[in-house]
UniProtKB/TrEMBL annotation:
PANTHER family: PROTEIN ABCI7, CHLOROPLASTIC (PTHR43575). One of its GO terms (biological process) is iron-sulfur cluster assembly. It comes from Sneathiella litorea. Residues 172-401 form the SUF system FeS cluster assembly SufBD core domain. Pfam families: SUFBD_core (PF01458), SufBD_N (PF19295). Belongs to the iron-sulfur cluster assembly SufBD family. InterPro entries: Fe-S_cluster_assembly_SufBD, SUF_FeS_clus_asmbl_SufBD_core, SUF_FeS_clus_asmbl_SufBD_sf, SUF_FeS_clus_asmbl_SufD, SufBD_N. This is Fe-S cluster assembly protein SufD.
Length: 429
């Protein structure tokens, strides 16, 4: 039998006892799905640095077990700063109806709790991931406790963003939350979704969200994410999206929190004139570690993908960007662009970058670029020579560095919200 890491062995040992309290435990189909996930996780364990996709991110601090902390319990829930009439809130891994506002959703939009769907035996929503070799996804399948299920009928447009809040408070009884989210958009439907992942600083926990997205022809999903977990937390997220003909998937992830985080996205362009837009920014300080890993698969001719990721790293923070664009044989007339840039504010900060193009067609237009460096001393000197204080000049240059990637956010309200968060982070630079 394989020797597992301590945390993996803990999950295997407690599965039988825990499964009886998880949603859908009375459904044979749900129970079978969970057992399948556990078996795959036990055969894989948490990935080590010998796994190529994880060689820049070391999970040892997590796999040795999450230590309890002395963070003061705070019963107050942080108020939502983003203004929208549509809010769904999860507190400590479970849906909170009292903290949600879902009574004004437009006709044709439906959102429910995954726990409620599993209790009803609706395991078909989850499909089958029996061949998925990602350990944290298999672990999520075994222990998924809640999440949201969002569906939109054909031709429905949601004019106002939907806010989904995942909040972990310091008084949480569990130190791990495995959220499973499902999004299904009908033909030519259009939805804007903002996720917030928040936690009380000093509280150690493990967040393992998995999101499965399927768009139909001509649909558009604007999917934005703020990762502002506790500075003692571990956040490992996986998002998969199927993008058919004429559909558009736009994703922007802003990461400022967590001790260690990884945001992994895979988009599959399966129809002509489809588009994948993946952008993001990560702002790290102290000893934080942030990993962004993307895979974009062009499976048919005539579709486009674009990626821009920018990071700012201070103190001893570490950043990782791994981006792969795959173009299969006969996927002609495809365009794929990828750019990663990092700004190092300290000589102790570091970034590891691995851009990758896998091209099996000849009529394509692809590019990738990566760079990292310090603030431009000449530009800093120029601003100071015009009477601007050094601290203010540094902030101006950092703001300019981030401005163009924030401009990629198509929703103006979300763009302004993220700009406010980045400005708040830079006040401590």
């Amino acid at each position: 039998m394989k020797n597992l890491t301590p945390l993996a062995q803990t999950y295997v040992d407690r599965f039988s006892a825990a499964s009886g309290s998880l949603p859908g435990h009375n459904s044979p189909a749900v129970a079978a799905l969970r057992k399948s996930g556990l078996a795959r996780f036990a055969s894989l364990d948490f990935p080590g640095r010998k796994v190529e996709e994880w060689r820049f991110t070391n999970l040892t601090a997590l796999t040795k077990g999450i230590k309890t902390t002395d963070a003061p319990a705070n019963a107050a829930l942080p108020a939502a700063e983003f203004e929208t009439p549509h809010v769904m809130t999860f507190v400590n891994g479970r849906f909170s109806a009292s903290e949600s506002r879902l009574d004004k959703l437009p006709d044709g939009i439906k959102i429910t709790s995954l726990a409620a769907e599993l209790e009803a035996g609706n395991s078909a929503l989850l499909g089958s991931d029996t061949e998925d070799n990602r350990a944290v996804v298999a672990l999520n399948t075994a222990f998924m406790e809640d999440g949201f299920v969002l569906t939109a009928d054909d031709m429905v447009t949601m004019e106002t963003p939907l806010l989904i809040r995942f909040v972990t408070k310091a008084d949480a009884t569990e130190n791990a939350h495995h959220m499973r989210n499902i999004i299904r958009l009908g033909e030519k439907a259009c939805v804007t979704l903002l996720e917030e992942h928040l936690g009380a600083d000093g509280h150690a926990y493990f967040a393992n969200p998995v999101t499965d997205i399927t768009l139909k022809k001509g649909a558009r999903l604007n999917h934005y994410k703020l990762q502002a977990e506790s500075n003692s937390a571990f956040h490992l997220a996986n998002t998969d999206c199927e993008v058919p003909a004429d559909a558009v998937y736009e994703n922007f992830a802003l990461s400022t929190g967590a001790r260690l985080s990884r945001n992994e996205l895979e988009t599959r362009l399966s129809g002509g004139k489809s588009k994948s837009i993946l952008n993001g920014a990560y702002l790290m300080r102290g000893a934080q570690h942030c990993d962004t890993t993307t895979v974009t698969r062009h499976l048919v001719p005539e579709n486009d993908s674009a990626q821009i990721y920018k990071g700012i790293l201070d103190d001893e923070a570490q950043g990782v960007f791994q981006g792969k664009i795959q173009i299969v044989p006969d996927a002609q007339q495809v365009a794929g662009d990828q750019l990663s840039r990092a700004l190092l504010l300290s000589d102790r900060a570091s970034v590891s970058v691995k851009p990758e193009l896998e091209i099996h067609a000849d009529d394509v237009k692809c590019s990738h670029g990566a760079s990292s460096g310090e603030l431009d001393e000449d530009a800093l000197f120029y601003l100071q020579s015009r009477g601007i204080e050094e601290k203010a000049a540094r902030k101006m240059l950092i703001d300019a560095f981030l401005a163009d990637v924030l401009d990629e956010i198509s929703d103006e309200a979300v763009r302004q919200y993220f700009a406010t968060i980045t400005a708040r982070w830079m006040e401590k630079v």
